[in-house]
Structures are given as C-alpha cells and as structure tokens.
Backbone:
C-alpha cells in the first residue's frame, strides 16, 4: 500500500491545477475541490489504518532510495495528523462555499480561492509526510505562500496590513529554518531524518545544542510559542471566517508537529526539556490572560489558540511516553475544537452582524442552533468533563504528576489555572453574546436565518469533537503507539532503510 503515501500531496496539487484552468467556472471549481479533499480524507484514513496495523509506509520519490532521494513516510503520527487535517479542510471548504453563496458571490467568486486552498492543503500534507528537513521546509513554504494569498484575499486595508505582518514574521522563521538546514548539512552531510539520527549523535554537544536551538526558534515562531506569538492575534482575526478557521486549526499545529518530530527523532534525551516546559508555562498563562482581556470574539479565540499551544509543549517537554501520547491526543482535539469555534464565530458574525461583544446579545433566543454550535466546543476547549478537552488535559496532568519534578508540577498548576480562565473567557462570551438582551443592532426575523451550508460543516465538526470523547480510548491507544514509536528511534530508521545501515 506504499503507493498511497504520495496521494495526499499529489491529489491537492493536481486539483489546484485543474481549478486554476477552470477560472470563471465556479461550479466546476467547487466540484473538483470537494472531490479532491474527500478523496484525500479517504486515503488518509487508509494510511492511518495500515500504519497502525503494520509498519510505517515509505515511498522513495522517483525511485531514488534514501538518503539520496526524497522520502515520504506515513507513520502513525503523520497518518493521524493527515486524517484530522483532511477532515478539517474538507469541512472548512464546504463552509466557505456556503458563505460565498450566502454573500451572493457564488456566480462571481475569486477564481484564485480554490487553487490556493488546495495548494495550502498540499503544503500541510507534505510537511506531515516529509522524511527530510529540506522537504519539510518545502512543505512549510508551500503552505505559507498559499496562506499569504488567503490572508489578504479581498484586498482590504486591514487584511493587507495584517498580511504584511504575517509575511515578515513567516519569512523570518523561514530564513532561520533554512540557515539551520544549511548548518546541519554542513556538519553532517545529509538532511535525511533517518540518517541524521546517527550523524547528529556524533557531533559535539555544543554544536548539537546550537542546531537544536535554531530549529526550535524557527518552529516556535511558526507554532506561535511565547514570546514569538504576538503576530498571531493581529493577523488571523482580519481574514474571512473560513480562512481564519483553517489557519487556527492547522498552521500552528504544523509547527508543533515539526517540534515533536525533531525533538524525539533528532535530539532525544531532554536537552531542551526545561526550556520547552518554561515556554509552555508562559505560553499557557500569558496567552489566556490576553484572551480574558479581549472584547472581540475572534481576538479572544486567537489568544486561546496561543494559550493552548502551551499544553502541547507541556507534553513534549516531559519527554515521557505518557506526556507525548497525551500531547498527540491534545493536538487532534485542539485542531478540531479550535477550527469549530472559529467557524462558529463566523456564524455569530453572520447572525449578529459583528463579533464585538458590546454589539451582540440575545443570540441564544434568536438562534438556538447557533447557541449549541458555540456552547459545546467552548465547553470542550475549557476542559469540562466528559469532553475530549478534559481527557487530554487529564492525561497531561497525570504525566506531570508522574514526573514529580518542580517544573512539571508548575505546569500542572499552570494548566489547571489556564483551564479555569478559559472557562471564564468563554462564559463571558456566552453571557454577553447569547444571554443578555440583544441591542437594536442585532438583526431579527427570517431574513437573518443562518445558511445551511455554513451550519452543516460546523455541526459536523461539533459532532467530531464530541466523537473524540466517545473514541478517546482507541485514540489514546493510537497516540500511545505513536509515542512509543517516536521514542524508539530505530523503528523510524529501519522503516526508511529497511533494516540496513544508514
């Protein structure tokens, strides 16, 4: 089944070419995009099944075997990330189609939207499957170039300003990443991840620490880790709701994925564990304090996005199997829930005319469906039992307590505090936007009903978030297997080289 591995990258790129040739034919573009993303989701599910029941699936592109050629690897972690990212991108695409129809743009949409969206998907999937550092860099650049276009789509002043900040920060992280790649190649003579396992271990400790620090700096910017996160709350809220949702759900998680992959495979042993734990604590606490201070739903959610990246660093920084498996579970949870909340914010803006809390009210009475679509993922994000957010945080707390160190205990306290403040932040949104008497600016009547094609994908993601609770046991088992494989580096190396010497 190795032939399936390149398909999550190839199909979106092929679809992007087709939709680009179909400029001016919106129905054809929509059909191609939906077909491609549905097929990508099905292939990703197959890759998860085969990687879980057997060894990782490996493909040498063009027949050039590792370490000379480009290698794509679908192990349990990569396949799991492919499944959740494919599900999210498909739902967001349906939502964006519904929004376009509701806004009257179905006949004259921006022809570049569908090709760019599919290119973004290809960049994300390529980053997850990359078996060498340079291909990982290529994946980042593909998704970042596409994200520049999507972020500034429409060309408004606010979007251009926010996009400029995003471009500058992203280029800085890319330069740091590319510099680190050059130094690693100069020191080891290879960029293949499996081959780097042995060659990096042979380098002096000081040089390894410098290389590790540069990669962490580059990925930390991409993942919006404090103090490298100030760009995110200013960039994401200005974009259209579907764009903001897919950015919030996926782009920062690609950075987190890169941290997990490189820290476990290339730099094991916990040399940067203390740094990751400290950064995780600061990201959690400072991010959620920023959320509490916001009066706009999109900005509030942007700060909660930053804050909950800290939980992921918590799990990685513990360098234990339980911590890593809990972080993997939490990544799946957070991608789903954060995307859902941003789609719900788009529905709130559609129904109430704004996302500013002082201009909203009474939405629970005016639109009960919208109230449910916001309330369930909000409670899930806050970690209320029995939702998946509670299960993921409980796993991280157990891992921190089992470690017994001072820093892990501080992270446990910080995680509980962050969860309580998250509950306060979303309760404040609920109270102001849904419960209080609506101001005159909030429209009422049948003309303000929500578009079904925007409600349906949001509801699908709400159900997926609830489903994570139902399948928490099997999902944690997959995460535990993935964590075990990540910590046993020979598993990855043997998959790439077939048991031969690198």
Residues:
């Amino acid at each position: 089944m190795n032939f399936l591995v390149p398909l999550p990258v190839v199909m979106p790129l092929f679809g992007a070419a087709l939709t680009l040739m179909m400029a001016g034919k919106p129905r054809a573009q929509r059909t191609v995009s939906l077909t491609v993303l549905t097929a990508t989701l099905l292939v990703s599910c197959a890759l998860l099944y085969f990687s879980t029941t057997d060894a990782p699936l490996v493909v040498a592109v063009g027949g050039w075997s590792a370490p000379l050629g480009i290698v794509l690897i679908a192990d349990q972690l990569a396949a799991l990330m492919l499944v959740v990212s494919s599900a999210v991108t498909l739902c967001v695409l349906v939502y964006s189609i519904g929004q376009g129809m509701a806004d009257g743009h179905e006949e004259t949409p921006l022809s570049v939207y569908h090709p760019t969206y599919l290119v973004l998907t290809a960049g994300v999937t390529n980053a997850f499957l990359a078996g060498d550092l340079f291909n990982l860099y290529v994946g980042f650049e593909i998704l970042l170039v596409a994200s520049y276009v999507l972020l500034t789509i429409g060309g408004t002043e606010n979007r251009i300003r926010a996009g400029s900040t995003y471009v500058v920060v992203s280029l800085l992280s890319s330069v740091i990443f590319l510099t680190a790649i050059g130094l690693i190649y100069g020191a080891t003579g290879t960029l293949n991840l499996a081959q780097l396992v042995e060659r990096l271990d042979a380098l002096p400790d000081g040089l390894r620490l410098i290389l590790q620090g540069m990669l962490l700096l580059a990925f930390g910017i991409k993942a919006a880790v404090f103090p490298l996160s100030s760009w995110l709350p200013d960039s994401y809220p200005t974009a259209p709701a579907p764009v903001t949702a897919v950015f919030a759900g996926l782009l920062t998680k690609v950075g987190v994925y890169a941290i997990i992959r490189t820290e476990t495979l290339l730099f094991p042993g916990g040399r940067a564990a203390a740094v990751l734990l400290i950064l995780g604590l600061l990201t959690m606490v400072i991010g959620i304090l920023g959320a509490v201070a916001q009066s706009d739903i999109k900005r509030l959610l942007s700060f909660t996005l930053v804050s909950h990246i800290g939980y992921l660093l918590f799990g990685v920084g513990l360098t234990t199997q339980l911590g890593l498996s809990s972080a993997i579970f939490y990544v799946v949870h957070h991608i789903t829930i954060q995307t859902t909340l941003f789609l719900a914010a788009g529905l709130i803006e559609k129904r109430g005319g704004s996302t500013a809390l002082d201009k909203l009210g009474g939405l629970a009475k005016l639109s009960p469906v919208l109230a449910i679509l916001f309330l369930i993922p909000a409670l899930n994000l806050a970690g209320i039992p029995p939702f998946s957010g509670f299960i993921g945080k409980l796993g991280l707390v157990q891992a921190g307590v089992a470690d017994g160190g001072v820093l892990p205990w501080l992270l446990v306290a910080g995680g509980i505090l962050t969860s309580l403040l998250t509950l306060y932040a979303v309760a404040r949104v609920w109270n102001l936007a849904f419960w209080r008497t609506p101001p005159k600016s909030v429209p009422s009547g049948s003309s303000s009903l929500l578009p079904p094609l925007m409600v349906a994908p949001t509801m699908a993601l709400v159900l997926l978030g609830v489903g994570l609770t139902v399948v928490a046991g099997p999902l944690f088992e997959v995460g535990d297997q993935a964590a075990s494989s990540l910590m046993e580096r020979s598993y990855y190396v043997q998959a790439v080289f077939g048991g031969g010497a690198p």
In short: Residues 270-470 form one domain. Residues 157-188 form the longest helix (32 residues).
